[in-house]
Amino acid sequence: MERPGYLKGVRLPRLERALASRQQSLRELIVRQREAVEPDYPASEPAGDEADQAQDRERKLIGGDLLDLYLAELGEVAAARERIATGTYGLCADCGEPISARRLEAQPTARCCLACQARRERFSAIAPQIR
Ligand SMILES: [Zn+2]
User: Fold this and answer.
1) Torsions phi, psi of 119, nearest 5?
2) The pTM is what?
């Protein structure tokens, strides 16, 4: 496939491999995390006193947050691979300008350029409820 000029500095095959392997390990992490937090798995015995049970609930809560993080990252990784496949990888989702090779190397799932990312973060700092 012909590679657009703006991806010149990007080691795309390396990024693709990195994304593919991250996707694989996220899937494994998600399976393991589900096993840890979902109530039916494994056949959990409500053993222990109340303090134990509270601790267990807390652990599941934290585990659930982690699961959400893994799922969100998996979505980002899948979307990045999709962009590589469709040839839109490396272009900012907001302004359409190329994302710097350095940024992509550091964060292969980056959707926007640094300037737009900074703007997004400023915005969500002002209005965290609007994402
Ligand atoms: Zn941008």
Assistant:
1) -65, -45
2) 0.76
- The number of angstroms, rounded, from the C-alpha of 7 to the middle of its chain's C-alpha atoms is 22
CA 86 – ligand 1 centroid, Å: 19
- What the block records as the tokens of 127 is 């209005």
53 CB-near residues (< 8 Å, 6+ apart): 46
Contact 15, 101 (CB under 8 A): no
State in Å: Cα 119 to ligand 1 middle: 9
pLDDT digits (tens, 9 = 90+) for 96-122: 999 999 999 999 999 999 999 999 999
CA–CA distance, 107 with 10 (Å, rounded to integer): 12
SS3 of residue 48 by DSSP: coil
